[in-house]
Amino acid sequence: MLYLAVTGNLNQLALKRKKNYLLLLGILYVLQMFSYYSAIRYLGASSAVLLLYTDPIYLTILAPLLLGEKNTGKTIFALFLGLIGVFYVTRPEGGFEQLEFGSDYLKGVLFGLAGGLFSSGVIISVRYLRDEYNGLTQLFWQSVISLFFFSPFAVSVPRNVLAENLPVLVLFGVLITGVGAVFYIRGVTGVNAVTASILTLLEPVSCIFFDYTILGNPIHSGMLTGCIFILAAAIVISLDDSVSLRKLFIWDRITFNKGAFVRRKPVLRAHNK
Description:
This protein has helices at about 1-5, 20-45, 45-50, 55-65, 75-90, 105-130, 135-155, 160-190, 195-200, 200-215, 220-240, 245-255, 265-270. It starts with a helix and ends with a helix. Helix 4 (about 55-65) crosses helix 6. The chain has one domain. The model is unreliable at about 255-273 (pLDDT under 50). The chain has about 270 residues and is an all-alpha fold. The longest helix has 30 residues, at about 160-190. It contains 13 helices and no strands. InterPro entries: EamA_dom, EmrE-like. This is Integral membrane protein.
């Protein structure tokens, strides 16, 4: 809102048609983030971010049903690669026979898979609303809706705990939702769609690196194998000749799974080609 006020574009926040779908977008985003952070809590950051990147699997299935997008041989192949990746990421080191019902590991896997599903729902909603609301408008109202639903969780936190961690939380919000996202989108607007999509894959790879080096969480061989298959699935979709599903995955994922950005006109022209 501050950015829009400074640039004199507050009129972009006006609600038009499809308000119910704008509300749906916000709810799906809330569910995505709740599932994602719950997966991090139970499973660890590396596995959680990889499971979040399973949204191409769901998009391959849901896009033809909800948006009329057509699958090709490459998208089916990407689905196959993604499923193999999920198998390796979710498989415990000792095998599935050691997976106990109700364990934290199983909860993390389920939350991670749910996060990928809700992420695909966010992308499809963005696609549906793009002709009525620009990216910044969708992002603003999505944030407002998220604030409404997440506020009770913030109030429930003990005051001393909130005060102790508030500087980190503010820094987290400013760097990721603000500065980092602006730098990111200004960078991807200068490259083509395929390059941009591959750049997005730095997120799960860097997450695994920092999870191991900074947080000290162990990384098993199955996670690395699953990482290769899931990222390969994303690359296959980005190289697919059927531009409809490719654009659905690339630009709409860049728009909302990275937090915040201001979409510039060159991106919109590339999106509609």
